[in-house]
Amino acid sequence: MRIYDTLTAQKTLLSRPAWDELAIPDPLLDRIGTIFGERISPEDAVRRILADVRARGDGALIDWSRRIDGVTPPSLVVPRTEIQAAYSHVDPDVIEAMRVAIARVESFHRRQPALSWIHNDTEGTLGQLIRPIERIGIYIPGGSAPLPSSLIMTAIPARVAGVPFTAMISPPQRTSGLPHPTILVAADLAGINAVYVGGGAQAIGALAFGTESIMRVDKICGPGSLFTTLAKRQVFGIVGIDGLPGPTETVVIADDHADPQLAAADLLAQAEHDVLACAILLTPSYQLAERVQAAILVQVEELGRSDVIAGSLARGSGIVVTDSLAQAFELANAYAPEHLCLLVEDPWSHLGEVRHAGGIFLGERSFEVLGDYVAGPSHVMPTGGTARFASPINVNDFVKIVSVIGLNEQTLRAIGPSAQRLARAEGLSAHAAAVERRLA
User: Fold this and answer.
1) Could you give all domains of the chain from N- to C-terminal order, each with its CATH number?
2) What is the pLDDT of residues 378-431, one digit of tens each?
3) Does residue 338 carry a catalytic annotation?
4) Catalytic residue among 82, 249, 272, 338
């Protein structure tokens, strides 16, 4: 992992392009060319897939699964018997760990009440009603590292919010044509109402438009590849979305009191997610920077997924030596990371300096991996600098506010003329007339 000075880091490591501005690798364009018969952009590929799913439903979803994933699912809806059978393929200790995670995530989110209120006074009644979104669809990637934790971190806040119907869709495995057994068990434990088979843009299209087998949802959540993210962006407006998640990222701020072995372990834990993952250390101590760099070289030899880690460390990760701890916080706020880990002497004293982060991890006993699984808050957090304006998944993502207006005659007489004048000023005569008729 390279060590940067501040100026160089600001021009390179800390100056990341938006996720949709990243250069598309030639192998990916070649793969698109093989599937579509011509070398088109990922956006165009997604647009064609979505249009086909919208037009042909189940048939399109099955065809694209065969063409892209190389699998023809035996069914697009996973039967209850297959979900129950999945328990026999998952380590009982893993099942118990998922139960622990579910209990803690539920407990945390029950402290996030979204409240209805009605206020009555001499003017009449004003208020708001909180209503859960009726149908939520959750996309969970497949691949070599199934992510039951992402399902839990999305489904449980939805359950707490009172969503009556949650569906999950996940790509088929080549061996079974079904989602990974761990994902199926997590879906059952989390109380998912329907489990579907499908991956990529075609899965997002199925949730957004509905098919013969898959019920259309009102909002789509969950992480995924470039293609699923592009698909979520293209269906937004037809359905709601939780956001456009990019590669995962961690910024660690550390001082001389930090343990270099633990700092290295936290950075490597982030780097193993994906070759596009970003793991960045900000420290005013050059000595600590060198010790962390050396620890990474040793620890990486003991880990699996070393090719993924190497790709991440070489691309968007690094160590930045700052002029001061204060400058480290300035750089972190400008970067607005998904995860911000404070490995400093008194992390609580620096909490007020953080303006932008998806989650703040205070001290060496509150490290990010606990947040990934069992701390309680959802680990689905804003990436790519969107922590400047976005929040982690929470109960409010799964409810909507309905305004209540019940004013009386006295209030109409008091405020109606102002409404009439504003309507006339906007050139909306019918609006004004609706007021005038009542005032008359």
Assistant:
1) 3-17+247-388 (3.40.50.1980), 80-241 (3.40.50.1980), 408-439 (no CATH)
2) 999 999 999 999 999 999 999 999 999 999 999 999 999 999 999 999 999 999
3) yes
4) 338
